[in-house]
Amino acid sequence: MSRKESLNKLRVTLVRRRDALRRALDGDLSLLQELHGQKTGDPLDAAADTIQDELNSQLVENESRELGAMEDAIARFEAGTYGNCESCGKPIPITRLRAVPYATDCIDCRRREEDGQDGGNVVAWNRVFDVSEVDPV
Known about the structure:
InterPro entries: DnaK_N, Znf_C4-type_bac, Znf_DskA_TraR, Znf_DskA_TraR_CS
Order of helices and strands: HHHH
Keywords: Metal-binding, Zinc, Zinc-finger
CATH architecture of the domain at 3-83: Up-down Bundle
Shape: elongated
Protein name: RNA polymerase-binding transcription factor DksA
GO molecular function: zinc ion binding
Mean pLDDT: 80
Structural class: mainly alpha
Organism: Crateriforma conspicua
């Protein structure tokens, strides 16, 4: 299969996934609104509802981010730039695009960015606090 055919298949996958995410988000948002209107009298139920609301809102946030990435990828496809690395301009391997259809960079550029070799600011995602000190004694 040629690269062009593979990219066209990926576009179909992107559109299907985007549509599925839109439907899921519509349902999730309406469920959040419905549940927000309900009141429970028991404090334990209220606490459980609060936790569930937080989990649902995080799920909606993640789905929204993925939806945005899908829509950006579809726009890049229509602009003729889909499948090319935004950093180096080289074609992104089809295997990477199959794994992450909304990828904007090749593996080498992604690794350089994550290692901080691209000259940008490196974010230590494994650190929770901005300072290294623990609570003072």
